[in-house]
Design goal:
By secondary structure, the chain is an alpha/beta fold. The protein has one domain: Spore Coat Polysaccharide Biosynthesis Protein SpsA, Chain A, CATH 3.90.550. The chain has nine helices and eight strands. A five-stranded mixed β-sheet has the order 3-2-1-4-7, with helices on both faces. It has a three-stranded mixed β-sheet with strand order 5-8-6. Helix 1 runs parallel beside helix 2 and helix 6 crosses helix 9. The chain is globular and about 45 Å long.
């Protein structure tokens, strides 16, 4: 099973480096773990990203392209990961660190619980926990059924919520509490808000989040259509009946 972790990043080469190194160093089988980073070509720290990438394992991929929303950037690197024969896609972030030894083997055991490979999993991030799927994990089958990883509509927020909402409609959300990917979020005082934070969330006065929330509400019908496509691919799980779409 080949696992791809997808991370758009901006202005945070050192934080990205800590994240990628934690992913690979704690995996039991590093050769099957692929990491993909999307960096805007106007990033002032682009040379630092290139220097850090040299220190990463060979199966790390740095993709440099035009500035765009993370909702689009995630799709760019997801497409590359699928072309590289990834079986599993994981949403990554440059303000996160993996904490669990052998997380890749543990994840594979969870995947085996879903023979049809239709699921949305997530790890314990020491922030949202079981209440919200902050960093979704989906399969190649999920991606190929919908034709995307993230919807591409949002400026910054609600990409995880979009995936989680679809999974909730078909009752295939699956929390894994014993694998930890700690989210070092600025609201938890685990890191300071930086220029990337202000660019994405706080300027101007939270307008980005307001716009993305409206987009999420207005596109509810699209998530219902996506759920119907996935439901058509699903097989009954042992002891679990397939859901009706909510």
């Amino acid at each position: 099973m080949r696992i791809a972790i997808l991370t758009p990043s901006r202005g945070r080469p050192e934080k990205l480096s800590s994240f990628v190194k934690s992913v690979h160093s704690l995996a039991n089988e590093t050769s099957r773990v692929l990491t993909y980073t999307y960096v805007d070509n106007d990033d002032l720290k682009i040379n630092s990203y290139k220097k850090e990438a040299i220190l990463f394992p060979d199966n790390n991929h740095l993709v440099i392209g035009p500035p765009q929303s993370v909702s689009i950037s995630w799709n760019v690197i997801a497409k590359k990961a699928i072309e590289d024969k990834a079986d599993i896609l994981i949403m990554g972030n440059d303000d996160m660190v993996y904490r669990t030894v052998g997380w890749d083997d543990l994840l594979e055991l969870e995947v085996l619980k879903f023979p049809d490979r239709i699921f949305c999993m997530w790890f314990e991030d020491l922030n949202k926990g079981p209440n919200h799927c902050a960093f979704p994990i989906v399969s190649k089958e999920w991606y190929e059924t919908l034709g995307y990883f993230t919807p591409g509509h949002f400026h910054f927020a609600f990409n995880d919520t979009w995936i989680f909402d679809i999974a909730s409609k078909i009752k295939r959300e699956h929390f894994i509490p014993y694998i930890i990917n700690e989210h070092l979020h600025y609201t938890l005082a685990k890191m300071e808000a930086d220029e990337t934070t202000y660019r994405a969330r706080l300027k101007p006065e939270g307008q980005t989040l307001i716009l993305d929330r409206k987009i999420f509400i207005d596109t509810a019908y699209m998530r219902k259509e996506a759920a119907a496509k996935l439901l058509a691919k699903m097989s009954p799980l042992k002891g679990l009946k397939n859901s009706q779409i909510g």
